[in-house]
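Hey, I was hoping to borrow your eyes for a little while. I've been staring at a protein lately and its backbone has me curious. You're getting the sequence in one-letter code plus the fold written as C-alpha coordinates. Would you mind checking whether the C-alpha coordinates look sensible for this chain? Here's the protein in full, and shout if anything looks odd to you:
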Amino acid sequence: MIKKIKEKFKDNKAAKKTFTKAVFYFFIAIFVFYFAKNTMTPKEDTSYIQKDPEVIVVKVQKVQAMKVKGSIILNGQTSAKSSIPLKARTGGRVEKIVKQKGEFVKEGEVILTLSQDDRSARLSAAKAKIREAEFRYQTTKELVDQKFESPITLTKEKASLQAAQAELKSIQQDIDYTSVKAPFDGIFDTKNVEEGDVVTPATELGIFVSLNPILIQSHLPEKYFGKIKQSEFVKAEFLNDFYTIGTVTYISNLLDPRTRTFLVEVEIPNDDLSIGIGQTAKLTFSLEQKEGYKLKNQSLLTLNSTGDIGVKVVEEGKVKFLPIEIIKSDSEGLWVEGLYDDAQVITLGGEYVDEGQKVKTQEEVVENE
Protein backbone atom coordinates (compact mmCIF):
# COMPACT_ATOMS: atom_id res chain seq x y z
CA MET A 1 0.00 0.00 0.00
CA ILE A 2 2.81 2.43 0.97
CA LYS A 3 4.67 1.55 -2.27
CA LYS A 4 1.63 2.50 -4.40
CA ILE A 5 1.22 5.86 -2.61
CA LYS A 6 4.96 6.56 -3.08
CA GLU A 7 4.82 5.93 -6.85
CA LYS A 8 1.74 8.13 -7.21
CA PHE A 9 3.38 11.13 -5.61
CA LYS A 10 7.08 10.64 -6.51
CA ASP A 11 7.15 13.63 -8.92
CA ASN A 12 5.20 16.01 -6.73
CA LYS A 13 7.00 17.81 -3.89
CA ALA A 14 3.81 18.65 -2.01
CA ALA A 15 2.64 15.12 -2.47
CA LYS A 16 5.84 13.91 -0.84
CA LYS A 17 5.01 15.87 2.30
CA THR A 18 1.51 14.43 2.26
CA PHE A 19 2.95 10.95 1.93
CA THR A 20 5.22 11.48 4.94
CA LYS A 21 2.31 12.62 7.10
CA ALA A 22 0.18 9.68 5.98
CA VAL A 23 2.87 7.18 6.98
CA PHE A 24 3.29 8.93 10.34
CA TYR A 25 -0.44 8.85 11.18
CA PHE A 26 -0.71 5.23 9.97
CA PHE A 27 1.85 4.05 12.51
CA ILE A 28 0.26 6.22 15.25
CA ALA A 29 -3.10 4.51 14.58
CA ILE A 30 -1.57 1.05 14.85
CA PHE A 31 0.10 1.97 18.16
CA VAL A 32 -3.15 3.33 19.66
CA PHE A 33 -5.10 0.20 18.59
CA TYR A 34 -2.73 -2.25 20.30
CA PHE A 35 -2.41 -0.08 23.39
CA ALA A 36 -6.18 0.10 23.84
CA LYS A 37 -6.60 -3.64 23.31
CA ASN A 38 -4.01 -4.55 25.96
CA THR A 39 -5.16 -2.05 28.57
CA MET A 40 -8.97 -2.23 28.25
CA THR A 41 -9.49 -6.06 28.17
CA PRO A 42 -10.78 -7.14 31.66
CA LYS A 43 -8.64 -9.65 33.53
CA GLU A 44 -9.90 -12.59 35.58
CA ASP A 45 -10.16 -11.78 39.29
CA THR A 46 -7.77 -14.10 41.13
CA SER A 47 -7.33 -11.85 44.14
CA TYR A 48 -8.82 -14.43 46.45
CA ILE A 49 -5.86 -16.78 45.97
CA GLN A 50 -3.19 -14.07 45.79
CA LYS A 51 -0.29 -16.25 44.85
CA ASP A 52 3.19 -15.03 45.67
CA PRO A 53 6.55 -16.79 46.12
CA GLU A 54 5.92 -17.35 49.85
CA VAL A 55 2.23 -18.03 50.58
CA ILE A 56 -1.31 -18.32 49.21
CA VAL A 57 -4.25 -16.46 50.77
CA VAL A 58 -7.42 -18.57 51.16
CA LYS A 59 -10.89 -17.69 52.40
CA VAL A 60 -12.12 -19.57 55.47
CA GLN A 61 -15.36 -20.02 57.37
CA LYS A 62 -15.32 -20.39 61.15
CA VAL A 63 -17.88 -22.98 62.24
CA GLN A 64 -19.77 -23.48 65.50
CA ALA A 65 -21.62 -26.53 66.78
CA MET A 66 -25.43 -26.54 66.78
CA LYS A 67 -28.21 -29.03 67.35
CA VAL A 68 -29.20 -30.81 64.15
CA LYS A 69 -31.92 -33.38 63.58
CA GLY A 70 -30.38 -35.73 61.06
CA SER A 71 -32.05 -37.99 58.56
CA ILE A 72 -31.39 -41.02 56.39
CA ILE A 73 -32.65 -40.88 52.80
CA LEU A 74 -33.06 -44.17 50.93
CA ASN A 75 -34.64 -45.17 47.64
CA GLY A 76 -37.19 -47.95 47.65
CA GLN A 77 -39.77 -49.71 45.51
CA THR A 78 -43.41 -50.46 46.19
CA SER A 79 -44.66 -54.02 46.44
CA ALA A 80 -47.92 -55.72 47.39
CA LYS A 81 -48.40 -56.51 51.05
CA SER A 82 -50.11 -59.75 50.04
CA SER A 83 -49.89 -61.53 46.70
CA ILE A 84 -51.30 -65.02 46.35
CA PRO A 85 -52.11 -67.34 43.44
CA LEU A 86 -55.80 -68.13 43.03
CA LYS A 87 -56.00 -71.90 42.61
CA ALA A 88 -58.97 -74.08 41.70
CA ARG A 89 -60.09 -76.24 44.62
CA THR A 90 -62.22 -78.46 42.41
CA GLY A 91 -62.39 -79.44 38.76
CA GLY A 92 -64.69 -78.28 36.00
CA ARG A 93 -65.18 -75.94 33.07
CA VAL A 94 -64.77 -72.18 33.53
CA GLU A 95 -68.38 -71.08 33.12
CA LYS A 96 -68.20 -67.34 33.75
CA ILE A 97 -65.47 -64.80 34.56
CA VAL A 98 -67.24 -62.26 36.77
CA LYS A 99 -64.30 -59.92 37.51
CA GLN A 100 -61.83 -58.79 34.90
CA LYS A 101 -58.07 -58.47 35.18
CA GLY A 102 -57.06 -55.36 37.14
CA GLU A 103 -60.46 -54.95 38.79
CA PHE A 104 -60.80 -54.20 42.49
CA VAL A 105 -62.68 -56.95 44.37
CA LYS A 106 -63.96 -56.96 47.94
CA GLU A 107 -63.40 -59.92 50.24
CA GLY A 108 -65.89 -62.71 49.54
CA GLU A 109 -66.99 -61.44 46.13
CA VAL A 110 -67.07 -64.01 43.30
CA ILE A 111 -64.28 -63.68 40.74
CA LEU A 112 -65.24 -66.58 38.46
CA THR A 113 -67.46 -69.67 38.48
CA LEU A 114 -67.01 -73.28 37.35
CA SER A 115 -69.69 -75.50 35.84
CA GLN A 116 -71.91 -77.52 38.20
CA ASP A 117 -71.94 -80.65 36.01
CA ASP A 118 -73.48 -83.51 38.07
CA ARG A 119 -73.07 -81.76 41.41
CA SER A 120 -76.78 -80.91 41.75
CA ALA A 121 -77.72 -84.57 41.24
CA ARG A 122 -75.08 -85.67 43.75
CA LEU A 123 -76.43 -83.14 46.23
CA SER A 124 -79.99 -84.47 45.87
CA ALA A 125 -78.76 -88.05 46.27
CA ALA A 126 -76.80 -87.14 49.40
CA LYS A 127 -79.82 -85.46 50.97
CA ALA A 128 -82.00 -88.51 50.23
CA LYS A 129 -79.39 -90.77 51.74
CA ILE A 130 -79.44 -88.73 54.94
CA ARG A 131 -83.22 -88.97 55.19
CA GLU A 132 -83.02 -92.73 54.86
CA ALA A 133 -80.19 -92.98 57.39
CA GLU A 134 -82.07 -90.79 59.88
CA PHE A 135 -85.20 -92.95 59.54
CA ARG A 136 -83.25 -96.19 60.06
CA TYR A 137 -81.45 -94.69 63.08
CA GLN A 138 -84.65 -93.47 64.77
CA THR A 139 -86.46 -96.80 64.12
CA THR A 140 -83.56 -98.84 65.49
CA LYS A 141 -83.32 -96.57 68.56
CA GLU A 142 -86.99 -97.20 69.41
CA LEU A 143 -86.48 -100.97 69.08
CA VAL A 144 -83.39 -100.83 71.31
CA ASP A 145 -85.32 -98.83 73.92
CA GLN A 146 -88.00 -101.59 73.91
CA LYS A 147 -85.31 -104.27 74.15
CA PHE A 148 -86.24 -105.66 70.73
CA GLU A 149 -82.89 -104.80 69.14
CA SER A 150 -79.27 -105.02 70.17
CA PRO A 151 -77.41 -101.74 71.01
CA ILE A 152 -74.75 -102.84 68.51
CA THR A 153 -77.28 -102.43 65.71
CA LEU A 154 -77.99 -98.89 66.86
CA THR A 155 -74.28 -98.09 66.79
CA LYS A 156 -74.08 -99.28 63.17
CA GLU A 157 -77.07 -97.16 62.14
CA LYS A 158 -75.54 -94.11 63.82
CA ALA A 159 -72.31 -94.63 61.89
CA SER A 160 -74.29 -94.87 58.64
CA LEU A 161 -76.04 -91.59 59.44
CA GLN A 162 -72.78 -89.83 60.20
CA ALA A 163 -71.29 -91.09 56.93
CA ALA A 164 -74.30 -89.75 54.99
CA GLN A 165 -73.93 -86.37 56.73
CA ALA A 166 -70.22 -86.22 55.84
CA GLU A 167 -71.00 -87.05 52.22
CA LEU A 168 -73.58 -84.22 52.09
CA LYS A 169 -71.07 -81.78 53.60
CA SER A 170 -68.44 -82.84 51.04
CA ILE A 171 -70.71 -82.26 48.04
CA GLN A 172 -71.89 -78.92 49.47
CA GLN A 173 -68.29 -77.83 49.86
CA ASP A 174 -67.46 -78.99 46.33
CA ILE A 175 -70.33 -76.88 45.02
CA ASP A 176 -69.07 -73.89 47.01
CA TYR A 177 -65.63 -74.36 45.44
CA THR A 178 -67.13 -73.80 41.99
CA SER A 179 -67.41 -70.12 42.95
CA VAL A 180 -63.87 -68.72 43.24
CA LYS A 181 -64.00 -65.80 45.69
CA ALA A 182 -61.66 -62.99 46.75
CA PRO A 183 -59.72 -63.98 49.90
CA PHE A 184 -59.42 -60.30 50.95
CA ASP A 185 -59.96 -56.82 49.55
CA GLY A 186 -57.62 -56.47 46.60
CA ILE A 187 -56.95 -56.53 42.87
CA PHE A 188 -57.55 -59.43 40.49
CA ASP A 189 -54.15 -58.67 39.00
CA THR A 190 -53.46 -61.58 36.66
CA LYS A 191 -55.93 -63.83 34.82
CA ASN A 192 -54.65 -67.20 33.57
CA VAL A 193 -57.85 -68.76 32.22
CA GLU A 194 -60.68 -67.93 29.84
CA GLU A 195 -64.34 -68.96 29.77
CA GLY A 196 -64.65 -72.51 28.46
CA ASP A 197 -61.27 -73.69 29.77
CA VAL A 198 -61.32 -76.95 31.72
CA VAL A 199 -59.41 -76.89 35.00
CA THR A 200 -58.47 -79.44 37.61
CA PRO A 201 -57.85 -78.99 41.34
CA ALA A 202 -54.72 -76.84 42.00
CA THR A 203 -54.85 -75.17 38.55
CA GLU A 204 -53.63 -71.57 38.94
CA LEU A 205 -56.47 -69.33 37.83
CA GLY A 206 -54.70 -65.99 38.40
CA ILE A 207 -52.91 -63.76 40.90
CA PHE A 208 -54.68 -61.75 43.57
CA VAL A 209 -52.90 -58.87 45.33
CA SER A 210 -53.61 -56.55 48.23
CA LEU A 211 -52.70 -52.88 47.60
CA ASN A 212 -54.06 -51.22 50.72
CA PRO A 213 -51.92 -50.81 52.64
CA ILE A 214 -48.95 -51.11 50.29
CA LEU A 215 -45.33 -51.85 51.15
CA ILE A 216 -42.15 -50.02 50.19
CA GLN A 217 -39.03 -52.15 50.35
CA SER A 218 -35.61 -50.55 50.70
CA HIS A 219 -32.09 -51.51 51.80
CA LEU A 220 -30.42 -49.93 54.84
CA PRO A 221 -26.59 -49.59 54.74
CA GLU A 222 -24.98 -51.40 57.64
CA LYS A 223 -23.51 -48.18 59.10
CA TYR A 224 -27.11 -47.08 59.85
CA PHE A 225 -28.24 -50.40 61.32
CA GLY A 226 -29.76 -49.80 64.75
CA LYS A 227 -30.44 -46.11 64.09
CA ILE A 228 -34.03 -46.64 62.94
CA LYS A 229 -36.68 -48.54 64.87
CA GLN A 230 -39.78 -50.50 64.03
CA SER A 231 -43.09 -48.56 64.16
CA GLU A 232 -41.44 -45.14 63.67
CA PHE A 233 -42.83 -42.74 61.08
CA VAL A 234 -41.27 -42.33 57.62
CA LYS A 235 -41.92 -39.79 54.86
CA ALA A 236 -42.41 -41.39 51.43
CA GLU A 237 -42.13 -39.27 48.27
CA PHE A 238 -42.89 -40.41 44.72
CA LEU A 239 -41.73 -39.19 41.31
CA ASN A 240 -45.15 -37.63 40.60
CA ASP A 241 -44.62 -35.27 43.61
CA PHE A 242 -47.11 -37.20 45.75
CA TYR A 243 -45.99 -37.87 49.31
CA THR A 244 -47.42 -39.58 52.38
CA ILE A 245 -46.43 -40.80 55.83
CA GLY A 246 -45.86 -44.48 56.58
CA THR A 247 -44.48 -46.64 59.37
CA VAL A 248 -41.56 -49.04 59.57
CA THR A 249 -43.02 -52.55 59.82
CA TYR A 250 -39.94 -54.71 59.33
CA ILE A 251 -36.15 -54.45 59.71
CA SER A 252 -34.22 -57.55 58.77
CA ASN A 253 -31.42 -58.76 61.04
CA LEU A 254 -29.78 -60.61 58.15
CA LEU A 255 -27.09 -58.65 56.31
CA ASP A 256 -26.93 -59.12 52.54
CA PRO A 257 -23.22 -59.94 51.99
CA ARG A 258 -23.29 -58.64 48.40
CA THR A 259 -24.68 -55.16 49.12
CA ARG A 260 -23.82 -54.91 52.85
CA THR A 261 -27.38 -53.78 53.55
CA PHE A 262 -30.41 -54.84 55.58
CA LEU A 263 -33.91 -55.17 54.11
CA VAL A 264 -36.37 -52.58 55.46
CA GLU A 265 -40.13 -52.50 54.82
CA VAL A 266 -42.36 -49.45 55.24
CA GLU A 267 -46.15 -49.69 55.17
CA ILE A 268 -48.14 -46.77 53.74
CA PRO A 269 -51.90 -46.21 53.27
CA ASN A 270 -53.31 -46.56 49.75
CA ASP A 271 -57.04 -46.06 50.23
CA ASP A 272 -57.66 -44.76 46.71
CA LEU A 273 -55.28 -47.32 45.13
CA SER A 274 -53.35 -44.47 43.47
CA ILE A 275 -50.02 -46.16 44.24
CA GLY A 276 -49.11 -49.13 42.08
CA ILE A 277 -46.67 -51.99 42.42
CA GLY A 278 -43.07 -51.30 41.36
CA GLN A 279 -43.09 -47.51 41.78
CA THR A 280 -39.94 -45.75 42.97
CA ALA A 281 -40.14 -43.93 46.30
CA LYS A 282 -37.75 -41.79 48.34
CA LEU A 283 -37.88 -42.61 52.05
CA THR A 284 -36.76 -40.11 54.69
CA PHE A 285 -36.04 -41.56 58.15
CA SER A 286 -35.62 -39.04 60.99
CA LEU A 287 -32.73 -39.51 63.41
CA GLU A 288 -32.09 -38.22 66.93
CA GLN A 289 -30.71 -34.72 67.38
CA LYS A 290 -26.94 -34.39 67.54
CA GLU A 291 -24.31 -31.67 67.38
CA GLY A 292 -23.19 -30.73 63.89
CA TYR A 293 -21.49 -28.01 61.89
CA LYS A 294 -23.04 -26.15 58.97
CA LEU A 295 -21.17 -25.78 55.67
CA LYS A 296 -22.56 -23.61 52.89
CA ASN A 297 -22.50 -26.29 50.20
CA GLN A 298 -21.13 -29.66 49.13
CA SER A 299 -18.39 -28.09 47.00
CA LEU A 300 -16.32 -27.72 50.18
CA LEU A 301 -16.01 -31.48 50.46
CA THR A 302 -12.89 -33.19 49.18
CA LEU A 303 -11.14 -36.56 49.31
CA ASN A 304 -7.76 -37.41 50.77
CA SER A 305 -5.28 -39.86 49.29
CA THR A 306 -7.01 -42.84 50.91
CA GLY A 307 -10.47 -41.86 49.61
CA ASP A 308 -11.89 -40.49 52.88
CA ILE A 309 -14.40 -37.67 52.54
CA GLY A 310 -13.67 -34.49 54.45
CA VAL A 311 -12.79 -30.79 54.36
CA LYS A 312 -9.61 -28.73 54.40
CA VAL A 313 -9.08 -26.49 57.41
CA VAL A 314 -6.31 -24.13 58.52
CA GLU A 315 -4.55 -24.89 61.80
CA GLU A 316 -1.61 -22.74 62.98
CA GLY A 317 -1.19 -21.34 59.50
CA LYS A 318 -1.07 -24.71 57.73
CA VAL A 319 -3.60 -26.72 55.72
CA LYS A 320 -5.00 -29.84 57.38
CA PHE A 321 -7.49 -32.45 56.14
CA LEU A 322 -10.29 -33.42 58.56
CA PRO A 323 -12.52 -36.45 57.77
CA ILE A 324 -16.22 -35.81 58.35
CA GLU A 325 -19.57 -37.61 58.43
CA ILE A 326 -22.60 -36.01 56.76
CA ILE A 327 -25.56 -35.62 59.14
CA LYS A 328 -27.97 -33.84 56.86
CA SER A 329 -28.05 -32.15 53.45
CA ASP A 330 -30.76 -29.90 52.04
CA SER A 331 -31.27 -26.64 50.15
CA GLU A 332 -29.98 -24.60 53.11
CA GLY A 333 -26.61 -26.29 53.26
CA LEU A 334 -24.73 -29.22 54.67
CA TRP A 335 -24.47 -30.34 58.28
CA VAL A 336 -21.53 -32.53 59.27
CA GLU A 337 -19.79 -33.98 62.29
CA GLY A 338 -16.04 -34.37 62.74
CA LEU A 339 -15.14 -30.69 63.13
CA TYR A 340 -14.71 -28.54 66.24
CA ASP A 341 -15.77 -25.04 67.36
CA ASP A 342 -13.98 -22.21 65.52
CA ALA A 343 -12.41 -24.60 63.03
CA GLN A 344 -11.34 -22.56 59.98
CA VAL A 345 -12.83 -24.42 57.02
CA ILE A 346 -11.36 -23.37 53.67
CA THR A 347 -14.19 -22.13 51.46
CA LEU A 348 -12.22 -20.58 48.57
CA GLY A 349 -8.82 -21.50 47.23
CA GLY A 350 -8.73 -24.99 48.67
CA GLU A 351 -8.04 -26.53 45.26
CA TYR A 352 -4.73 -24.64 45.10
CA VAL A 353 -3.29 -25.88 48.39
CA ASP A 354 -2.19 -29.23 49.79
CA GLU A 355 -2.15 -30.64 53.30
CA GLY A 356 0.73 -29.23 55.33
CA GLN A 357 1.15 -26.17 53.11
CA LYS A 358 1.50 -22.71 54.74
CA VAL A 359 -1.33 -20.28 53.95
CA LYS A 360 -2.77 -16.95 55.00
CA THR A 361 -6.48 -16.67 55.75
CA GLN A 362 -9.26 -14.22 54.96
CA GLU A 363 -12.38 -14.92 57.01
CA GLU A 364 -15.75 -15.32 55.31
CA VAL A 365 -18.76 -14.76 57.54
CA VAL A 366 -21.54 -17.37 57.18
CA GLU A 367 -24.64 -17.29 59.38
CA ASN A 368 -25.49 -20.50 61.28
CA GLU A 369 -29.27 -20.57 61.08
Summary: The two ends are 71 Å apart (CA to CA). The longest strand covers residues 65-87. The chain has four helices and 20 strands.
